[in-house]
Amino acid sequence: DAKTTQPNSMESNEEEPVHLPCNHSTISGTDYIHWYRQLPSQGPEYVIHGLTSNVNNRMASLAIAEDRKSSTLILHRATLRDAAVYYCISQTPSGTYKYIFGTGTRLKVLA
Amino acid sequence: EAQVTQNPRYLITVTGKKLTVTCSQNMNHEYMSWYRQDPGLGLRQIYYSMNVEVTDKGDVPEGYKVSRKEKRNFPLILESPSPNQTSLYFCASSSTTEQPTDTQYFGPGTRLTVL
Q1: Staple A89 to which of A5, A34, A68, B106, CB 3.0 to 4.6 Å?
Q2: What distance in Å separates the CA atoms of residue B30 and residue B97, rounded to the nearest whole number?
């Protein structure tokens, strides 16, 4: 599984879009990119995942670079409830099924 | 309600006293996993299990044991806890090992302090 790197923290104003970057320069062609988030005092929860093309769901969008060495999680309108630590994970779909979470990005949303 | 439960939620113990943290899921998931979370180190995987009687080491397995005798339960065992195992522990499960993109569902966490 490829290692991912993310900024330690980011800030956003409420109701504005947020772009959370993730670098995964050693990713292989079959590794999926997952995003989870951890709200205060809770376990992590799934946000979105993708392989090559951009993905959208009700929570967020995932933009994957053409070379797949980076991706961006997009929250279209940040709310105070989106304040959390966001984890980008690269995961190999065969073999060990290990998940390497890393330290994540702490998102602060300003009212 | 679909959920992953952990017990106890909080535990203070002393060095060397064996303990077990239980994890149970009611979603009929094949895959289960244990993580520990420490400040500045994020979430690190301890052990995982792809199905009953099948377990494997994650990134930080030293000092821990697991067992998977039945599908719904995946206890974490600390035979001789030490202070460096003081941490926040999370159990997680997902639906199938055939589709590794399946969502992992996490429990509420167990905060362990080893004195």
Answers
A1: A34
A2: 7
Closest Cα in chain A, distance from residue B104 (Å)? 7
Q: How far apart are CA A87 and CA A96, in angstroms?
A: 20
Residue A88 pLDDT grade (very low, low, confident, very high; cuts 50, 70, 90): very high
Quick check: B39 contacting A, CB < 8 Å?
no
Per residue in A36-78, pLDDT (tens digit) is 999 988 999 999 988 888 889 888 999 999 988 899 999 999 9
Q: What is the DSSP string of chain A?
A: ----B--SEEEEETTS-EEEEEE-TT--TT-EEEEEEE-TTS--EEEEEESSS-EE-SS-EEEE-TTSSEEEEEESS--GGG-EEEEEEEE-SSS------BS-EEEEEE-
Specify which residues A67 forms β-bridges with: none
Task: Write the CB contacts of A67 (distance below 8 Å, at least 6 apart in sequence).
Answer: none
Residue-wise pLDDT tens digits, A7-28 = 999 999 999 999 999 998 877 7
| Rounded Cα distance, A22 and A8, in Å | 11
pLDDT tens sequence across B60-114:
999 999 999 999 999 999 999 999 999 999 999 988 655 556 788 999 999 999 9
Does the CB of A40 have a partner CB in chain B at under 8 Å? no
Identity of the residue numbered A101: F
